[in-house]
Amino acid sequence: MQLQIDTGLKTYDILDADGNVTGTVRFNPADPGIAARWKSAEPEIQRLAQAAQETNGEEDATLSLMLDADQKIKSLFDYAFGAKVSEAFFGGQSAFGICEDGSLVLEHVLTALTPVLESSMKSGLEAVQQRAKTHTAPYQGTTRGLAPGQTLPD
């Protein structure tokens, strides 16, 4: 026996700069849970990235701090998406890996994710609103659905 349930999951291939697939993630971009979790995780990700980049202590302490921050950042991504997405997003390297243009891998991941999440959350909200309209439209401006003796407010 099987249950087939549409949960809104979308599959995204993660491509490197050369267009090679380096991983795949699945999540529902219109899930308000992702938006809520991302809202709490994103400032912490930014704080950890800033702290790791501002270290000027001993080499061992700096490396330890960066390793710890990298693990926490990846854990926050996994938490926000409700799935183990960090492996696909970062491809087994540190969030603080340096790209050819001098920016961090973390910056590239955030740049790629932001428009996907913003667009999908917006379209998800519009779909919910449209669906609600189709169900409430027959009742707009009528007494249909009111209890006996109940009237519409002026």
Quick tags:
154 residues; mainly alpha; two-stranded antiparallel sheet; 4 helices; 8% strand; elongated
Average pLDDT works out at 86
Let me know the largest β-sheet: 2 strands, antiparallel
Shape: elongated
- Strands across the major sheet, in which order? 1-2
Task: Calculate Rg over CA atoms.
Answer: 22 Å
Q: Uncertain runs with pLDDT below 50, 5 residues or more?
A: none
Number of strands: 2
Ends distance: 54 Å
Helical run tally = 4
Strand content: 5-15%
Order of helices and strands: EEHHHH
Q: Label the structural class.
A: mainly alpha
Helicity level, as a percent range? 40-55%
Region (Disordered): 131-154
Structure write-up:
Residues 131-154 are annotated as: Disordered. The protein has helices at residues 32-53, 59-81, 86-90, 105-136; strands at residues 10-15, 21-27. Helix 1 (32-53) runs antiparallel to helix 2 (59-81). The chain has a two-stranded antiparallel ribbon. With 154 residues, the chain is mainly α. Strand 1 (10-15) and strand 2 (21-27) form a beta hairpin.
